[in-house]
Design a protein that fits this description.
This protein is α+β, with helices and mostly antiparallel strands. It has helices at residues 70-82, 106-121, 128-143, 149-156, 190-203, 205-227, 234-248, 253-264, 290-299, and strands at 4-15, 26-42, 49-53, 58-61, 90-96, 160-162, 169-170, 177-183, 269-272, 280-285, 304-310. The chain is built from nine helices and eleven strands. Bound molecules: (3R)-3-hydroxy-3-methyl-5-(phosphonooxy)pentanoic acid.
């Protein structure tokens, strides 16, 4: 059995985070500049699976992980999907350049890479639909009640217009556009902001429903603009989406600072992305201004920036 390697990209949400959990549409795009990678290698003479994940200082037998560990679950679900009772002795090496707990889909990307690598190693590559379903099950550990947007965009590696429990709609991008992503450096587990929004929605259903509806309309409108090749029109829509997220209570001073810095430096629009209260923000920029805006974000305190092109040929 030869070694098998698989990878999966990061992702960024352009419109509709949080509202997507409540059935509104959202738009997310892959970020190929950062990747999670899994390699499964045979371990002749060994026993069971040995896991090496240097990024999180993990080096141990998979059997010693708790049953609800995300990596252990990804392995178990893959094994069940393929119908293999016992796995051959092997080493699973997991690495990732996607920042953790930052709204860039690191959890989903690691799951997708592991599922693909293990299935490939066992000689049973799984179709993307199955990989997506399995990764969704693992996402429940990260998010509690995930919408499924992260695993979907990461599995298919294409921009998506996503509505929970609806067939996947790949979003064609007729003209590419450039994003600058700025990391606040503040770690913010998505499960915490998703729980906060759920409690706020229960306390003030009409108000929060109006926020969700607004976000959904912005995502819908953004899709229309993309279809009509009016990419720059996304900028003001992103600004509006950020304002709604601020009112929802999921922004933070660090996110607001970076969003303001991007706009002041000439971004066409900027917003927080993902769960919020930390993690990343994203700005739509003219390609020739990208470096300058990334620098402005660093000056304003960004721990890291990524420049990425969506819809490149
Ligand atoms: O993983 P994050 O932080 O990009 O958040 C995912 C988006 C949410 O809408 C906040 C949660 C979800 O499951 O859709």
């Amino acid at each position: 059995m030869p070694a098998f390697t698989a990878s999966a990209p990061g992702k960024i949400i352009l419109f509709g985070e949080h509202a997507v959990v409540y059935g509104q549409p959202a738009i997310a795009v892959p970020v190929h500049d950062v990747q999670a990678r899994a390699i499964v290698q045979p371990r002749p003479g060994g026993e069971g699976i040995r896991l090496i994940a240097s990024d999180i200082s993990m080096k141990q037998a998979l059997a010693d992980l708790p049953l609800d560990d995300a990596i252990a679950l990804a392995v178990r679900l893959t094994q069940e999907a393929i119908g293999v009772k016992e796995l051959p002795a092997c080493t699973l090496v997991v690495s990732s350049t996607i920042p953790l707990a930052a709204g860039l889909g690191s959890g989903a990307a690691v799951s997708v890479a592991i599922i693909r690598a293990l299935a490939g190693f066992l000689g049973h590559p799984l179709p993307d639909e199955t990989v997506n379903q399995l990764a969704f099950e693992v996402e429940k550990i990260h998010h509690g009640t995930p919408s499924g947007i992260d695993n979907t965009v990461v599995t298919f590696g294409r921009p998506v217009y996503f509505v929970k429990d609806q067939p996947i709609e790949i979003l064609e991008i007729p003209i590419s556009f450039t994003l600058v992503i700025g990391d606040t450096g503040v770690s913010s587990p998505t499960v915490e902001t998703v729980t906060y929004v759920r409690e706020a929605f229960q306390a003030q259903p009409d108000l929060y429903q109006s926020y969700f509806d607004l976000c959904g309309k912005l995502a819908w409108n953004a899709r229309q603009q993309l279809n009509r090749r009016r990419n720059t029109s996304l900028g003001p829509l992103m600004n509006d989406n950020h304002d709604v997220l601020v009112r929802m209570g999921v922004s933070s001073p660090e996110l607001d600072t970076l969003v303001a810095a991007a706009r002041e430096a000439g971004a066409l629009g900027a917003k927080l992305s993902g769960g919020g209260r930390g993690g990343n923000m994203v700005a739509l920029v003219e390609p020739d201004r990208a470096e300058e805006i990334a620098l402005a974000l660093t000056d304003a305190g960004a721990a890291n920036t990524i420049i990425t092109t969506v819809g490149r040929p």
